[in-house]
Amino acid sequence: MSAAGPQTTSRLGSALNPGVGKRELWAWAMYDFANSGYTTVVLTTVFSAYFVGVVAAGRDWGTLAFTSALSLSYLVVMLTMPTLGARADAQARRRRFLFISTAGCVAGTAMLALAWHNDIAIGLLALAISNYCYCVGESLIAAFLPEIARPEALGRVSGWGWSLGYFGGMLALGLALVIAGRAEAAGLPAESYVPWVMLLTALIFAVAALPAFLFLRERGQATQRVQEGLWRRLGNAWRDTHAHFPDFRRLLICGACYQAGIAVVVTLAAVYASEAMGFTMAQTMMLVFTVNIAAAVGAFSFGHFQDRIGHKPALAITLAGWILMVLVACVAVQPWVFWLAATLAGLCMGTSQSAGRAMVGAFAPPRRLAEFFSLWTFAIQLAAVVGPLFYGVVTWVSGGNHRLALLLTGSFFVLGLMVLARVDFDRGMRARQDAAGAIS
Q1: Is residue 16 in some structural domain?
Q2: Domain span at 107
Q3: Number of neighbours of residue 122 by Cβ within 10 angstroms
Q4: Inter-residue contact 197 to 50 (CB < 8 Å)
């Protein structure tokens, strides 16, 4: 036992940049723990079903209204995040921007408790605000990764954060299930307990995010770069990747492709389970737990493997895993086969999201971290709009054929793998080093 402690400390120290302690690493990873409850409880399980069935009172357009509010928030993120990222870099205030976005998401999540029967406007407004702030915070916390982890350890450190995040999601969902189970056993309607679940989710987010604001350090230095307008900043940032960072540009396109497929799995997994497989609500909840456990295991273990074999091969392997998952899910007739596909989806989800974030960290110049991660956020949010919309259009045109929709969704992973093949990782690293040298 006495030898294990120093060895563990040594491994941690070899993964962290000079001046970064274990407490700061823990604080950074705890933000992933904090915000995962929001996506798991609000977007994937509890509030999505509650809004369609109770707030919108089962109206035919309830699902469309819910997804439209999310799409609007994603669109606003796409249009504003590059400017916010550039400003956070220029003013060296990433932590301040992170605090503001976190406070907005916590407040928006708490506002969801005000959405009762027919309170559609309140529900949609709170959903759009909370999701927008969540996306901004997700981008900003990722921009701290290259300052915390050494270049050769980006994969494993990113994986530590993602794996801890999935446990945060399971904690929030588990507590929500306890509240829901007791209320339903007492014969109480959803309106009596879902608002409390939303308040609890907001509280977990607020408390678990505190270490990030107490212990994360702002290492960037303020610059005098001129802040362009919204559209000019967005256009200039994209053109700059074409002129100086072509491999990062290809990574953005790759991410937009495969994240569209992931967005379908995150947003519509419960719908597919019930519509195509006939799962009950309890089975669907257990399915979500299975996906989160597998994702945590995948993110934690695959990060070490990623650092050994390289970011690009690791991402290629996980995209191939996504393609396999789609094929297994599409042919699944027996429940155990679909459970196998769900477990594979969880493993791929943890690895692909962690691998993508680490690869962005490897390409981002030191003084433009928030800006580059905001471009990555732009690509992800574009995917979040396109993926579920594509799935919905296919099911509509095909008369509700969810298997066909999922099969065609697999094309996003194929496209991502094809674009990734054109990314030259060594050249991308050289571009980053050249940019860092020009600044210094």
Answers
A1: no
A2: 22-216+238-439
A3: 16
A4: no
Q: How far apart are CA 256 and CA 418, in angstroms?
A: 13
pLDDT for 418: 96
The alpha carbon of residue 236 and the mean position of all alpha carbons in its chain are separated, in whole angstroms, by 25
CATH number of the domain that residue 264 is part of: 1.20.1250.20
pTM of the model: 0.74
Pull the structure tokens for residue 428.
């991308």
Q: How many CA atoms lie within 13 A of 408 on its CB side?
A: 16
231 located within any domain? no
In a domain, 1, yes or no: no
- Buried b / exposed e across 33-45, counting CB within 10 Å, b at 16+? bbbbbbbbbbbbb
- The whole-number pLDDT of residue 2 equals 39
Which residues of the chain carry a pLDDT beneath 70? 1-13, 58, 60, 63, 220-237, 268, 270-271, 274-275, 280-282, 303-304, 370, 436-440
Instruction: Quote the strand ranges of 155-211, DSSP E.
Output: none
Q: Which residues contact 50 (CB under 8 A, 6 or more apart)?
A: 190, 194
